[in-house]
Amino acid sequence: MAFYSQTDRRFRGLELKVGLFAVLSIAAMVALMAYVIKRSDLFSPSSSVYFFVKSGEGVKVGMPVKLSGFSIGSVLQQDLWDMSKVEKRHSAGLSGLAVKVTLDIKTRYLEWIPMDSNAFLRKENVIGDQIIEFIPGVSHVSLKPDEYVKFEKEKTLNDYFEMISEEVKKVQEEAAKTMQYINDPNGEVRKAFENLHDFTRGLVETREKIDQSFITMDKTVLNVNEQVMQMSQKTQKAIEDLNKALNTTNDALPKTFRKIEESIDSISNVVAEMKKLTESLTTDLPEIVETGVDVSRDADQVMESLKKTWPVSSNIKPPKSAPLEVDSYGAR
User: Fold this and answer.
1) H or E stretch including 148?
2) The model's pTM
3) What's the rounded Cα separation, in Å, for the pair 33 and 31?
4) Which of 78, 132, 212, 331 sits at 20 to 30 Å (Cα–Cα) from 85?
5) What are the tens digits of pLDDT across the range 183-199?
6) Tens digits of residue pLDDT in 32-84
7) Of residues 86, 82, 121, 87, the one with CA closest to residue 99
């Protein structure tokens, strides 16, 4: 090198130039590395939080953790965990063996995550990678390091298909049970159908009986109507005959009463004449007595005839015949 520096002026101070270049290059590399480290937060303080899931499927170490679309950390590790050793309020309803997922979050971002925030496993978009995203809660207390967070897995198409498949299986099972229950020969449904069949058959028979009853009722009504018409005709005829008899009686009564009056007058005259004869003819007493006897006989006959004449005969009661009283002592 000294030889070249003596013969060629371009090589003078070459070692100094090379050393200066090396120092500048190292300084630039260090500055670049510092800038990159600062931008990537490689040496920023971080804190761990955790949650439990039944299966670690879909969760990978290094998976980004975001808050409102901003990266705040990543998945640090996954471990199998016995849930019997976990407090019930942190078990998320899990039992037996589960997976504990630990998240590494920059400490300066914890103040933006409330205690009641939820972590979700979802995709950034339809065909994007899966991430864990925090949905802030409403608590005024921030999340602390090494705290438990609630976790929910966003349902995928497979999850929805599984849910639909489970529901369809349940429906099929219920349908099978229902069909079995319906087809059971000793079941209530079959008995109900049999009872309904018997009931409908009974309804048909009842309707036939009701129709027959209506037919019989119609015949009875017709017969009653005929009898009522006949009775009404007979009653009308009886009323007409009674009216005729009453008219005849009304016509005959005055004549009868006139005859009775005439007869009574005649009897009165005869009695007066008998008295006169009895008083005037004392000498001819036997003849008069005989004549009186004859007159009396004639009067008795007239009275008997009057008694037999209607309506006098209807007003004269016949004498009642009574047995003779016999003394029991005298009968002996």
Assistant:
1) none
2) 0.40
3) 5
4) 132
5) 777 777 777 777 887 88
6) 887 777 666 666 788 899 999 888 888 889 899 998 888 888 999 999 988 88
7) 82
